[in-house]
Amino acid sequence: xxxxxxxxxxxxxxxxxxxxxxxxxxxxxxxxxxxxxxxxxxxxxxxxxxxxxxxxxxxxxxxxxxxxxxxxxxxxxxxxxxxxxxxxxx
Length: 90
Description:
This protein is an all-alpha fold. The protein is built from four helices and no strands. InterPro entries: DUF7521 (IPR055943).
């Protein structure tokens, strides 16, 4: 296997696992009406799923430059970390 196949498989696995963890946290939010669990779900999805969507879906679809892609992924990571920080401090 080539390195690009391994990297793509790792990205898919990360996005799928992140989506599953985000779903579990969101389900916890619905059952318990917990704002903390909602923020946890948003944070996990922004860190694990959104960057994959930007890199592998939006970038080729809209022919985004490398700079726009990196900026978008960085903003997604910052939003995710902000949501996670808020979830553990509220």
